[in-house]
Amino acid sequence: MVFKCQEDSFLKEFTSKVVKCESTTEPIVEYGKSTKFQGYQITVENTILFPAGGGQPHDLGWLNEVKVLQVLRKGEEALHFTKEPIEVGTNVTLKINWERRFDHMQQHSGQHLLSAILEKEHDLPTTSWWLGSDDSYIEIDTPSVDPKILQNVEQRCNSLIQSALPVKVKLCKAKDPNLDKAHLRGLPNDCMDTIRIICIGDVDENMCCGTHVSNLSQLQVIKLLGAEPGKKGKTNLRFLVGNRVINIFQNMLDKEKALTGILKNDPTRHEELIQKLQKNFKTVNKNLQNVLTELAQYEIERVINNQPKPKYVFMFKKEATPEFNRAICKGLEKEGLFIFCASEEPDKPKEGQIIIQGPEEHCNVLGAQITEILKAKGAFKHGKFQGKASDLSGINKCKKLIEDYFNDLN
């Protein structure tokens, strides 16, 4: 069956009759992410809401005032997933979420054009594709692609868009002797009666069940985002079409304005200033490490020279680093002391690194209690525990625990 949405991709409203309404627990799948669902699947005589297929996600919309959360094709039926039931025999007005539909049309038609140019002009066939919520990609049967080829492909696609080539739908019967066998490749077994061919001028003819624009000019523009390694020696080519290009460009402009406000300079000098800031940061960080190394040596000597000799060392400095703590433990490892060192993560003040080191009898008693309080993960090895604490709010509780333990030993 060819649904109404496949006959006219631009039809935004349509009246039909409910022929079936059944309860369902089949999950909702949105751009590959599955969520549990309990509701109803409603079948109507015909629909303008596209059921997911051919790499294109399902439409969203309404049956009267009832929201449609998913549409799936089962044989010749389109199942509309809703939270509310609708009585069989009810006439309903179907409306689609046009913004989502047109976005999918732009990406899908853009994919057809992109795949056609890659294969016919550069011998780079598409083996699969993915339409995501933010961007899309086609999988190309090659381990890598020359950047110059991608540049040429992008220019060629945009040139054809500017030429405003018509995009038409041709319907064929499976037994039509004039039908190219290549058009049948990948066609589901239950779609063998009527076959839809999407024709882009004289550039491409490709079997497809999805919704498409009627003219390449409606794509506006194609932008290739780059090629990435795919599975089994293939390449994924990420791309945007139409309104998605405009949206991401606006997003980039907003970020540029925000960055200009922070850096207080012209956008043309952003790269230069950031490189300068990075260089300064490396210098400052190196100086800080030198200071912390000197501070660690000072703390080590202070503990060693302290009289009477302490039985434990508790050190929690917010400005400390894991390297600082390791230097403290290494410098005092021959003193036979129980040592606890902690430092905060720079961007996560409640989390940090801890080290517990010392005589086995003390570590056996205190170690498990400290790691439990701080929700630390790690393991004791050779008389030392080193790991990550996910809750440093209990640091003072640990300090009192250690103090009480050694006071009781006296």
Give a written overview of the molecule:
There is one protein chain. The chain is an alpha+beta fold. It is built from eight helices and 21 strands. 34% of the residues lie in helices and 31% in strands. The strands form five sheets. The protein has a seven-stranded antiparallel sheet, with no helix packed on it. A five-stranded mixed sheet has the order 17-18-19-21-20, sandwiched between helices. Helix 2 (98-122) crosses helix 3 (147-162) and helix 5 packs parallel to helix 6 (322-331). It starts with a helix and ends with a helix.
Q: Major beta sheet, specifics?
A: 7 strands, antiparallel
The total beta strand count reads 21
Q: Tell me the strand order in the biggest sheet.
A: 6-5-9-1-4-8-7
Round the Cα radius of gyration to an integer and report it.
Answer: 32 Å
Overall geometry comes to elongated
The secondary-structure element order is HEEEEEEEEEHEEHEEEEEHHEHEEHEEH
Low-confidence residue ranges: none
Helical residue percent band: 25-40%
